[in-house]
Amino acid sequence: MAFKKLKYWFDRELAILLSEKIINVKSDFEKDKFIQIIDQNVQNLELKDRVEVIADALHHHLTTSYTQNIDILIQTLGQENESETGMFTNYYWIMPIAKYVEKYGLEDFEVSMNAISEITKRNTGEYAIRPYLELYTQQTLAVMRLWSKDDNRHLRRLSSEGLRPRLPWAKKMDMFVQNPKLIIPILNNLKDDSSKYVQKSVANCLNDILKDNFKIGQELINKWSIDATKERQWIIKHALRNLLKTQNEWAMQIVD
After folding, report:
1. What is the DSSP string of 124-192?
2. Domains of the chain by residue range
3. Of 8, 28, 104, 128, which one is least surrounded by beta carbons within 10 A?
4. Global pTM?
């Protein structure tokens, strides 16, 4: 993926790439119409709108069955990402598929949870998961608790990243701003995670909590700081980075 602004990768070339992958699974896919409608509609749009145009095109040019469409799209995903990088480079083209699940899959909870898990093993399901958290809060949290203990680090990361109250590029998750205690059981499962990729997400989630619910975040970090592993120490320090910049007395004592 040569350097250029991310939004410019979501254009006619991506439509061609996606259509070639789909036609290997669904031979009667209307490739030319799919490419044409994307080419006509993404011009002058920003990234998120381009991704949505492509997701809408998938909806209109596959079958009338969401379940069948997800089966087709999962077959296009290819091998899992074995590293902690590449989600927005090697696997950038999966973003419209994640948007498709986010926008069109809300009536098929189990199918969509499976699709999000497969997507996040290559790209990320952190945005797709959020409307499910709003509509099926307890069911989705239960799935994410399982993911937080999974062997796959991408799923473990998603179990934290998808819960962030202030996830960049996403709408603020008011339910977790009002009650961050819903998040804490999952963060507790991840507090000693060996993956730096996961650790960064946990730290960022804690940082979000501190912005809106300082006392709750402070209490959790105080508990974590007792006999903390080196992994947990790194998470705590990274979570406190903004407070450390302002020389907050409590934060400086915690990391001392």
Report:
1. --TTTTHHHHHHSHHHHHHHHHHHTT-S-HHHHHHHHHTT-TT-TTS---HHHHH-GGGTHHHHHHHTT
2. 1-135
3. 28
4. 0.95
